[in-house]
Fold these 4 entries.
Entry 1:
Amino acid sequence: MQFEVDDRIHTSAFWLGDWPLSAVYLKNHADFRWLILVPRIANAQEIYQLSIIERHLLMDEMVALSAMMEALFKPDKINMGALGNMVSQLHVHVVARFKTDVLWPHGIWQPDLIANPYDAEEANGLVKILRKKIEEVSVTS
Amino acid sequence: MQFEVDDRIHTSAFWLGDWPLSAVYLKNHADFRWLILVPRIANAQEIYQLSIIERHLLMDEMVALSAMMEALFKPDKINMGALGNMVSQLHVHVVARFKTDVLWPHGIWQPDLIANPYDAEEANGLVKILRKKIEEVSVTS
C-alpha cells in the first residue's frame, strides 16, 4: 500500500518539507509552535512497528527538529508525544512550550485545547522561515 | 554530579528495574497501565542533550517497553510522551490506552487526571509481574 498522510493531518497543518524518514508539518494552531513528524511508512501506527534503522532515524529527526525549535523559539521546554488516539497513523508531535502559554504546565493533548488557526499572513511568514530551516538541517545518524 | 531519580517520580511510582540506560517505573495510578523510563544521565532534561548512542538506546528501550506492554495488556493504543513541564528531569511516559479508559481519546497529561493510587494488594501483584518481565526483556540495539 502506498503511503499517504492522513487527511486530518493534511487539512490541519502546513507541510514544511520531507526529511529522510518523515514529512514535517506545522500544526495550524497559533497558540503554540507545534510541529509534527509523519514517518512515510505505510500502515505504521506504533513506533515498535518500525525497523531498527527507521526507529533510530525517527529519533534522529525528533532530536534535529527539537534542537532546531529550541534555537528558533527559545522555549522553556520541548514536549514530545506520540499518541494516535484520534489519528492512528504514526506521527510524533514536537511542541515548543512556554511557561506563559495557555495550557502550561499541562500537555496540549486535552479537551481544553481550543482551536486557534493562524491568520494567513502569520502562517505565510512562519511557514517560509520553517521551510528554509527544515531544508537546511541535515539529519545525521 | 551523580544521577538521582527526582523525588516526585520516586514517591509517585514503583521501581521495576534498571535497563542499560533507564530506570523503569510503574506510575502509582490505578486507572492506567502507565510506565516511565528515566534515563540515568545526570542533569538531562531534553532528549537532544543525550549522545547519539544514548538516544538510540532510549528509543530501543521505548520500543522494548511498549512491545512488552502491548503483549501484556493488549491496549487499543500505546501513548508515549516526554514533557517535563512539572518534573524537568528527562523521563518518558509509555502508557497503555484503552477506548474505555477515563480520559480516552485525550492525553493523560491534563488537569482532568484525578489521582487514583493502587491499593497495596493490586500494586504488589502488578509490580511482581512487571519486575519479572522487565528482567526478562533484553534490550538490543
Entry 2:
Amino acid sequence: MKEKLTTLCYIEKDDCYLMLHRVSKQNDVNKDKWIGVGGHFEKGESPEECLLREVKEETGLTLTAFRFRGIITFSTDTFETEYMCLYTADGYEGDMIPCDEGTLEWVKKDRLWDLNLWEGDRIFLKMLLEDAPFFSMKLHYMGERLSEVMINGRAEDAGKMLEASEK
Amino acid sequence: MKEKLTTLCYIEKDDCYLMLHRVSKQNDVNKDKWIGVGGHFEKGESPEECLLREVKEETGLTLTAFRFRGIITFSTDTFETEYMCLYTADGYEGDMIPCDEGTLEWVKKDRLWDLNLWEGDRIFLKMLLEDAPFFSMKLHYMGERLSEVMINGRAEDAGKMLEASEK
C-alpha cells in the first residue's frame, strides 16, 4: 500500500486565519471551497519540509513558528485515501504573493462558518479554535457529504458533530 | 507522490515495553533487531485502525488505551520514504499469542539500551520514556547508520542525540 500524503496549514494573524478561496483551477476537487494552504509531499520530505515549501510557494511567506495539530484521514468509496498533516502557524516572515490556486484572504475566526467549507473542515476547525490537543480524525465522505467521523479511533456521531460545529 | 505508511506501538506493562525480536523472516530489513509491534496500513485505514489490527494480528491483544506519540519520517538514499505513526499503549485485553514475525518479550524500560536497536529508535524511545509531547522526527539513514535527525522541523546533531540516548 502506498498512500497520498498532504499538509494543510492555517496561518494566524489578528484573530484571523489565512484562507484560500479555490477559484482558479478547473477540475479542482476543492473548486469554490475555502481551505487553508498546503499541498502534496514531495519525495523524501518530512511533514515540516512539505509544510514550509508549500506555504512558501502558495503565499510567499516563510513560517517561523508552527504547531502540528492533527492528522486527518480522508476516505471515500471512490478516491484513494488521503492522509493530511494539519498545522497552525503564528509566526512568519516575508511578503505575501498572489497564489495561483485561488484568492488568499484573512478571515476572522468567528466568520469562518459563513464560508463555503467542507463539512469535515468545520469539525476540525472547531477543534483547532478550541485548542484541542493533538488528534487523529478520520472523515469518510459519500460524495460531498460527510458520513462517518472517528476521533482518536472512536466513532462519533457525524450529524451531531456538524451541528455542534455550527455553534 | 504516494508513500509508505506504517504504525509502531510499544505496549506497556509493569515498567516494561513489549518488544519484538525479529528473528523469523529472511530478507527482513529489521532482521535480528528489536522493535515494537505494528505494520503497514491497509486500504482506507486510519492510523488507529491500522494500529488495532496490527497489534491484534501480531500479539493477540486488543488495545483499550493508547496514545499517538509522534510521526517518524524514515528516509534513505536508496529506499522509498516511510512515514511511521508511533504509539504507546497501556491498556489491553486478551491473551498473547506467538508472533510469526519474531519473538515477543517484555523488556524493562531501563534495559532497552542493551538490545540490538536501530540508532534512530534509541532517540525516539528516549523521548517516549521522557514523556515528550507529540513530535515529528525525521531520521535519514546511510545504510544502517543514522546521518541526520530533525525534530519538529529543526535539524539536530545526530551524534550528540545518540550519545544522549545512551545515558
Entry 3:
Amino acid sequence: MHVLVDGLQGGQVDPLDRGLNYGDGLFETIAVLDGRPRFLDWHLERLAGGAGRLGFPALDAALLRREIAAITFGARCIVKLIVTRGSGPRGYRPPRPASTRRIVAAWDWPAPPASAAAGARVGWCRMRLGRNPALAGVKHLNRLEQVLARAEWDDGVMDEGLMCDEGGSVISATQANLFAKLAGRWVTPRLDQCGVAGVMRRAFCAWQAEQGSPVEERVLARADIESASALLLTNALAGAWPVRELEGRPVPVDGDCGEFSAWLARV
Amino acid sequence: MHVLVDGLQGGQVDPLDRGLNYGDGLFETIAVLDGRPRFLDWHLERLAGGAGRLGFPALDAALLRREIAAITFGARCIVKLIVTRGSGPRGYRPPRPASTRRIVAAWDWPAPPASAAAGARVGWCRMRLGRNPALAGVKHLNRLEQVLARAEWDDGVMDEGLMCDEGGSVISATQANLFAKLAGRWVTPRLDQCGVAGVMRRAFCAWQAEQGSPVEERVLARADIESASALLLTNALAGAWPVRELEGRPVPVDGDCGEFSAWLARV
C-alpha cells in the first residue's frame, strides 16, 4: 500500500483531523485498469457534489488528478481517495474557512473470491440504514452501518449482504448498488433517503439508457427483490456482478451482465 | 493541546485507521476539575458499553486511566479520548481480532461564551437525526449530522441548536442532552432510536432520583418542548446549562439548575 497525505509520501494524519473525529469527510474508491483510473471524471464529479453538500470549500480537481497519477502503480490497482474537512479547533462547528486534507492511497488489485466469478451469493442483513435525506447519496465517511452489516457474516458462504432502510425499503448491498430485473426491465432503489449513489451504478444506468431502456429508480420492497427475474450488484471494482443466489435460492444470471462488462471494457 | 496516540507523545494516526476511514470508533469528552477527571468511571463504563455494541475487543480500562492521568495538565482541562477499531485491510469487514487504537488528548479549559452564563439561547436545527436503534445512545464517531447541524448558525445570537429525528421527535441539542420541565416534572427524550446517552444526562437523572423525583424518559414532540416551563441542557463540560431563550422567546430559568450545580460540585 502506498499513500500520500496532503501530497507527502508515507504521511500520517493529524489526530485532530475532522475525518477521524467526526467522519467529516468523503471518499472515492477508484479502479485503475491498464494504468488508467476508470470513470475518474465521474468520481471527481461525485466528490465535488459531496463537498458541496457538506459545505467544504471547492476542491482542486487538478491537484487530485496529479496525486492519483502519482500514487498509481502497475497496470492494475485500486486507488482510494479521502478528503476531510482538515483539522480545526475542538467541537462540531466547522472551521471557516476550512482547509481540506487529502489522503490518496493505492493497493494491489485484490484476488477475486474463488467462488465469486460465477456470481454473488447474497442474503439479507439485519442491520438497517438510517434515513437522512441531507446525507443520502453522498459517499461520506460515516460508515458504521456498513461496517456492522459486514460484520454479520464470515462464513465463506455469503459474498454480499443486502440492506434495507429503517422503513424496510431495500437500498443496496454493503459495498455495492443493487439492480433488479422486474417485468423485463432493470430497476434500482431510489437513494433520496439513504445509500450511496455509486459511480458504477451511474455507468450501468448510462449503458441501459444507451440501449433505449432507461433504468427506473423507485422504492423497492424485499418482496420485489425476492420476485425479481435477475439481480445485479455494481461497484467501482467489480463492475457488474450478477447475483446467483439469494438466501440459498438460485437466481438466474442475466445476459445483460456480460454485455455490460463488454461495454465497460470499451469505455 | 497535548496528545498521546497509542501511548506515544505527539503521535500521529495511520491513514488506514478505521476511525478515519469509516468512523469506526468511539469517543468520550471528559471534564478535568481540580486535577480530577469528573465521572471517569461512568465515562469508561459508557465507552465499554459502546465497544460491546460495535463488537470491539474488551478495552484495557487501567491503561486508559493511566493515559488520561498522563495527559492531564493543570487543575482544569478537557480530555478527549478516542478509541478506534485500529487499522486493517481495505474494506468494511472488521478485522478479527481487531487491535484497537487509543488517542488521548488534553485541551485548555475553554473560556465560556460571554453571554452564556445567564443561560443558553437555543433554536431549532433544520438538520434531522437518522434513526438506527443499533447505534442509538452510543457515542460513536459518525457525527456528520451534528457537524451539519452546528454549521447552521454562526450569528453570535444562538448558543445551541435543538435537533429532531427523522420522525419529528425531539432528541437533543447538537452537543448536549435536553431536559424539559412538564407539569412540574423533568422529562428527557428517549434515546432508543438515535442520540447520545450523555454522562451528565446520567448524572442529572441520578440527582433527580436522589431527590425522589426520577426523570421520565419519553418520546417528546416540538410542542412539548415549546410548552415546557423550563429547559435544561447537559453535557460533560457545562454540567447543567439552563435555557433562557427558545427561538427568541424567553424561558424561565429553573432553580434546579443551581441546585444540581451545587450537587455536582460536591460529588
Entry 4:
Amino acid sequence: MMIRHTVTFRLKHPPGSAEEQRFLEAGRELSAISGVQNFECLRQVSAKNQFTFGLAMEFADQAAYDSYNRHPDHVAFVQRRWIPEVEDFLELDYVRL
Amino acid sequence: MMIRHTVTFRLKHPPGSAEEQRFLEAGRELSAISGVQNFECLRQVSAKNQFTFGLAMEFADQAAYDSYNRHPDHVAFVQRRWIPEVEDFLELDYVRL
C-alpha cells in the first residue's frame, strides 16, 4: 500500500536567508534516493501553526520506506543538516482510506 | 497558486466504531463542495504522533479556499461534527516551492 511520508518543520535560520536556501537545496537531494516518488518541497502557509516548510514523498510500500530511512544519504542528511538546523518538526505519514 | 489544505486529527470515538465510520463518511461529503480538488480521506500511520486520520484537498487559489471555508456545508460540518467529535487536530496548508 502506498505510503505518503510528510514532515513539516521550522528552521533555526532567518526566513529568506542563504542558510535557509542551502538547507532546502540539501533537502531536495533526498528525492534522488531509491524508492522516493512524487517528492515535493513545500511552504507551509497556514497561520494556525508555527511550521514554515514541508517535505512530502511517497513510497510504494513499507519496505521501500524502511530502505529510505536506512539509506546512507538519508542518515547523513538527518545527522548533518536536520538535527543541527531544524528548530521544530512533525512527521505525519498517510495511507489512503 | 494551488493550495493544499490538510488536517490531521484524532476522534473521540473508539477506533473501529460505527461512530468513527459515520464521521468519516460525513467528512467525505466535503469533497462535493465547489472548488475542492483532489480530495483524500487518509489514515495517519506514523507512530511518532498521536493523530489517526487526515483529510487533504486542493484549491486553485486563495479565493477558492476562502469560498470553501465560508460554504454552508463546511460551516455545518464544523459545527455539527468536527467540534463535538474531534479530540485533537492540526491544520497544515502547503504551496509548492
